[in-house]
Every structure is written in C-alpha cells, then in structure tokens.
Write a structure and sequence with these properties.
Blueprint lengths: L8 E6 L5 E6 L5 H6 L25 H12 L10 E5 L6 H14 L4 E5 L13 H12 L2 H13 L8 H18 L8 E6 L7 H14 L7 E7 L3 H8 L6 E5 L6 H19 L13 H11 L3 H11 L6 H8 L13 H12 L4 H13 L9 H7 L6 H6 L6 E6 L7 E6 L2 H7 L2 H4 L6 H17 L17 H9 L3
Parallel strand pairs: 3-6, 3-7, 4-5, 5-6
Antiparallel strand pairs: 1-2, 8-9
Helix pairs in contact: 4-5, 4-6, 5-6, 6-7, 7-8, 9-10, 9-11, 10-11, 14-19, 19-20
Protein name: Nephrocystin 3-like N-terminal domain-containing protein
Keywords: Repeat
InterPro entries: NPHP3-like_N (IPR056884), P-loop_NTPase (IPR027417)
Length: 493
C-alpha cells in the first residue's frame, strides 16, 4: 500500500512486511516562492535589518516633505505632470532621512509603496541585481491577487528572468503585471509610489544611470498610476542621465539653502542637547546654560547645512560613558581627544570613501588646497584664476570636480564684484578640518607648509614669465594679483 502527499512531506511506500521505505518528496516551487529567493529584505524602508533608520527630526525638513507629498498627491501645478522626482544634495545632507520619512508617511496613509534603500557596504543592497525583484515582491504583497499571479506566472515560465536586463525585468515583473491589474478593473485614488534611495551607493556608476533611464522608460506611456522618487548625490553619471530627460517629466529638489537647513539643524541640536541634559546619567553635572549660544553657532556653521555633521556630533557627545561637557569641548577643539578617540569617525569614513573612489585625487586636492589656503578675496575663488594659476586647461576644474560633486560645488556666484563668475565652493566646512588633520585624513592630508611652498613657487614662476606673457595668455587678466598672492604665501615662512 502506498501513500503520496503534495508538498514537502514524507512519502511511505509499503512493499512488504520487512520492506517499508520512506522518501522525502519535495514538490516543485511555485513562481512566487522563486521570487522570494531574489529579494533583498534589508532594502525595505521598514526592514528589521535597518532598525532605527535615519529619519527627519520632528519639525524639521517641513518644506521639503510638503513639496514631495504635494507632488505625490498631484497638488502642485508645477510638478503635476512629472512622474519621477529627483531629490539630490551633498553627502550627508539628509536625503535618506527624508526618503525614510516619506515612506513612513505613505505607509501611514495606506499608499501602495515599494522601496529600495541602497547601501554600498551590503552585498544585496549595494548592487542592482536585487532591485526589480525586491520592488516586485513588495508590490505583489500589497496589490490585488491578479498582480501576484502574473508575477508568479512569469517566474514559472521563465525561471531565469532574474538574469535578464533591467529593462526586461522591469517590463516582466512590474509594468506588465500592473497593466494586467488595471485591465482587470483595478483602480485607485492614490498613485502607487516607488522610492529608490541612495542610488549613488549602487556599485556601478553606469548601472546607476541605467536605472534612471529604465525608470523613465517604464513610465514613458504615462498609462500606469505610478510615481518614482529617487534620492541620491549629484554624481556625474546620475546628473548626466537626469539632464537628458524631458523637463516636464521630471521634478527636482535640491537640498540647498532654499530649504532653511541651518534653522533645521539648530532646532535638531537644541532638542538633542536638551535630551542629553534630561536623560544622561551625569546630567546633574551639566550647567544649566550648556551649551553656550556661541557653541551652537559654531556647530551650525560647521554643519554647512549637512545633517551628518550635526548627527555625528550628537552621537559623540551623548555617550553615556563620558561627560557630555568634556566631549563637546573636544568637538569644539577646546580639549584634545583622548588616545584612540575619534569624534568624527562616521564623517571621516564618508570623506575617505568619496576621495578614495575618484581619479586624479592628487590634482583635486591641489585645487581644494588652493581654495582653502588662498588669500581672503573673492577673486581667488574664480575657476578661471585657479585654472590659469595651476596651468590647467579651461574646463578642467568642472570636469574634475564632477567626481566629488557631493563635497565641492562649481557654481556661478552672482554677488561677485565682477558679476556672475564661476567659482569653487566647499560644501562641507568640516571637510577643511578633516584635510588639515593628518590623524584623520591620512593619505589625503593637506600639509599647510608644503602647500604654501608649492603655491609660492608657482607664483614666482608666473611672475618670472611676466615680460613674456601675451595678452591672450590665460593668466593675463590676473597678472596684477600675483604679487599679492606671493606676499600672502610667502608670509607663512
């Protein structure tokens, strides 16, 4: 007598009194089960692997969040036609915190939401191969059964769909199932929302740009109730890809001074220091007026509108194993750190990662060093002057600085005495501290004496050439400035 069961069961075959054999029977996996094997669980906005993810502090980033939600709800006439929004800003500007906050708001309002939070150090979240399947799984878990059945059928017909191109995967696992769902009679008052955060942390810059192109291709026909929010640094390949897209299809938000980030950072710091004063084990030893107003001013200025600096400071100062007042003095440079103490470890790791990943880093540091050490005058921030002084070809600085666009900005300075002039601007005030401290920057250290010597030598070389400089020389408009520059750098000796 024989017994057979479907699924993963024991199957007993009785072939006689002394010959009973038990086999393990495993039924073939269904399409949805196959999909689950290709999901990066840690990329969800509410994943347990991302426990306590960064999100916006209460009553901060209000204007940015409102603008994004108005876009999703179709309430802003300027962005109503856009199906994709790009949220971008410098490293540490708080993009992931905003994306996380938006995801939580949408979940609370019962939107259909799928998210992928890239992370360069994670084997699943640092590559694009898990992106489409992870988004498809989340949509299948929240949309009606028709969508899930279509995705499952795709896997059953083509188990190797995960090896196909991003375009093929998006078509088969997202677009076609959504169209079938719509044809079945499904309708919604709210758009389905996909959030892709940290696109710049995907391992391949070319793939980063490809994800953008495929996203626009997915929505090209404008026949899906779907909007995509992408957050990233303005890296070269990403910016170039967005710049080629039709204006009306894309909404952009730059995390710059238009969104009062300094006021938000001050509010964040005040709240966090108040928490320290009420919860820290040594709170009874903290003075009532701590921290002083000028200390707060310094921290806000050093943050340069980037939340990562303020967040790093708070984590360091709040340590329950140390005195908060002493640790804040270390941050402010009043007291030296103890041996092995790294007040800005998180920030240093960010700077190191960005600088390690660029070509021509030595030349980039020469340019940054010039901006850091030059005499205090608007003229010396001019891209034209720096290129002429360092004997670079016009346009070189713009090309080079694209590789560190999350730290350095090349932009028109409208208040320049000569009118709108292209200038180099350091986005993080704390970057200078990092580069000038060899214990922190190591291979990227800017040696003040060596840099001044190098620039003084260049000054002398240019001055020596003065009689032979032709009127069409790149340095010709700046000839009169050279003696003052030489005096500035010569004074260090």
């Amino acid at each position: 007598m024989s017994q057979y069961f479907h699924g993963s069961r024991n199957v007993t075959i009785d072939t006689g009194t002394f010959n009973t054999v038990t086999y393990q029977y495993q039924s073939p996996k269904g399409g949805f089960e196959r999909l689950q094997e290709h999901v990066a669980h840690g990329a969800f906005h509410d994943s347990g692997e991302r426990f306590d993810p960064p999100k916006c502090h209460h009553n901060t980033r209000v204007a940015v969040i409102k603008r994004i939600m108005d876009w999703i709800d179709g309430l802003n006439k300027d962005t109503r036609e856009a199906l994709i929004m790009w949220l971008y800003g410098a490293a540490g500007a708080g993009k992931s915190a905003i994306a996380q906050t938006i995801a939580e708001i949408l979940q609370g309002q019962h939107f259909v939401l799928a998210s992928f939070f890239f992370s360069r150090n994670d084997p699943q979240r640092g590559v694009a191969k898990w992106l489409v399947t992870t988004l498809a799984y989340q949509l299948a878990a929240k949309l009606p059964q028709v969508f899930r059945e279509r995705v499952a059928l795709t896997f059953e017909k083509d188990p190797l769909i995960v090896t196909r191109s991003l375009e093929a995967q998006f078509m088969a696992l997202v677009r076609e199932p959504l169209l079938e769902l719509l044809h079945s009679g499904f309708s919604t008052n709210n758009n389905i929302v996909v959030i892709i955060d940290g696109l710049d942390e995907c391992d391949d810059p070319k793939v980063q740009a490809r994800i953008i192109d495929v996203s626009f291709g997915l929505l090209h026909s404008r026949d899906l109730p779907l909007k995509i929010l992408i957050a990233s640094r303005p890296e070269m390949d990403i910016s170039s890809s967005f710049d080629t897209k039709p204006f009306f299809t894309l909404a952009r938000i730059a995390l710059d001074n238009d969104y009062q980030s300094e006021e938000d950072i001050r509010h964040f710091l005040v709240d966090k220091f108040n928490e320290i004063k009420t919860r820290h084990p040594l709170r009874s030893y903290i003075p009532i007026g701590w921290p002083a107003e000028d200390s707060l001013d310094t921290l806000v200025r050093k943050s340069s509108g980037q939340f990562i600096y303020a967040s790093t400071v708070v984590k360091y100062v709040a340590s329950v194993r140390h005195r908060p007042t002493h640790r804040l003095d270390v941050v402010l440079g009043i007291n030296p750190p103890q041996a092995g103490d790294s007040p800005f470890a998180e920030l240093d790791a960010l700077y190191q990662h960005i600088l390690t990943g660029v070509e021509d880093v030595h030349l980039i540091l020469q340019i940054i060093g010039f901006v850091v050490f030059h005499p205090p005058s608007y003229y010396y921030d001019s891209v034209a002057f720096i290129e002429a002084f360092l004997s670079l070809v016009p346009g070189d600085i713009q090309l080079l600085m694209q590789n560190v666009g999350s730290l350095i900005s090349v932009e028109n300075y409208p208040d320049h005495p000569d009118g709108a002039v292209l200038t180099v601007r350091i986005l993080h005030a704390s970057l200078k501290d990092y580069l000038l401290d060899q214990s922190r920057s190591k291979d990227f250290f800017l040696d003040r004496l060596k840099m001044h010597t190098r620039y003084a030598e260049l000054c002398l070389a240019h001055i020596t050439e003065l009689p032979s400089l032709e009127s069409n020389s790149p340095l010709h408009p700046f000839i009169g400035m050279l003696p003052y520059v030489l005096i500035h750098w010569g004074s260090v000796f």
